[in-house]
Amino acid sequence: MLAESMVAIAIGVTFLVAVMGIFISSSISFVDIGNYISMDRQSRNALDRMTANIRNSKTLTSFDAAKLVFNYDSAGTTNLTYSYDSAGGVLTEAWKINGATTTKTLLTGCSNLAFSLYDRDLVPTTDASAGAGKVISIAWQCTSTSLGRTNSEYMQQAQIVIRNQP
Prior knowledge:
This protein is an alpha+beta fold. It has one domain. Helices cover 33% and strands 43% of the residues. The protein starts with a helix and ends in a 5-residue tail after the last strand.
């Protein structure tokens, strides 16, 4: 009777350990999936916002692999700047309207981000003057941590045409 009870307890404990292992594994996977979904949402929102703003800009006034500056009016009173801080892994959007600047963080945790400029024939250029650059290419890679480990990586890439630029 004691031997049968010991065997039953051993089987029960083994079953409970297996169920706990499955539960912990499922919980970690659930957190990882939530992390991916959050990163995807942030990347899509940033790309949608950037696409709309870049397409509606009048001219690209300054180009760098980590910074874009656009003008929205002929008087130069409305400007938009996208800049990437590689040390902090942050992409920001700064609107300057009549001297007042409003800054918004679009992405955090970016390990890599680069802007590229192309002319009308999709030939790479760095010339932002006189409408030489017509297409902006953006590529970034972001990472995120969950449960103390870096496990999520998300890459986004797009080409955006400046529509209002002559």
